[in-house]
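Let us practice reading a record.
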Amino acid sequence: MLWNVASKRAADTDANAGRIRLAQLNDLVGEVHPGVEVDVSFDEREDVNISATYKDAALGGELRSLETAATGLLQVIQIFAYIVLFRPKMALIDEPDSHLDPDKQERLIEALERAAAKFETQIVLTTHSPHIVRAASPRAKLVWMADGEVNSDDDDAIQRMHG
């Protein structure tokens, strides 16, 4: 997936389109995980495998294999890589806050809202996180459900319940 984000695709008219997409991905990932930057490389003449790496300023900024990244970081990269690459009209995301600290959960909803606007994607997500609910902007539509039934679709009331 990351190689496709960073590579020129047949439909790309700009030779730098892949690097532009990778920069967009890094901007979104950096909103949730400040100081983190992802890179991917492959030289068909020399490499057997695609190399996916990341740097995290909080870990000394050393280049590390993406395989060593925390689950929460990997999940955030996966979500935003999909949105940046495919630009879906709708993205269904199930509990994107799992494996994230509360402050990163709040940053995640902010980054998702920004990505939704930038890539014209409607995002529907499920969560049990009060941090996601509290950090959602007035542009977000909140629905409280229990046992498959809508209990409330009053955004203010839902945010007050989780305040």
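A brief commentary: The first strand starts at residue 36 and ends at 41.
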